[in-house]
Amino acid sequence: MAGQNGEAALLASCYRSALELARDHSFESIAFASISTGVYGYPVEQAAAVALSAIAAFMKENPLPKLVRMVLFSNAILETYANALSAMTTAAKPEWEERNPPS
What we know:
This protein is mostly helical. Helix content is about 60%, strand content about 10%. Helix 2 links the parallel strand 1 (about 30) and strand 2 (about 65-70).
C-alpha cells in the first residue's frame, strides 16, 4: 500500500526542495499540485498533511516565498486539504494561546 514505506519523508523533502529553490531564486510565490496522489497512488489524506506541514514549517523559518498556493484537481481533493489545514490549525491553537496569553 502506498504511503507506508518512508514516502512521507520523501514527499516532505520534495516540497522543501522546491521551496528552497523558490527562496534561492527570490520567487515571491510558488504553486503546487497534490504531488504523488495521482498515478503514484499516494493517499490524499496523508499527502495533504505532509504537504501542508512541510510548507508551514518552511514558511515559518523563511521570508520567501511569501505566497504558496495549492492548485488542486477536484473539490474532493480541495476538501481533503481544507480538512488537513483545519486539523493543523486546531492542533496549533493551544500552543499559540499558551505562548500568547490574553492581556
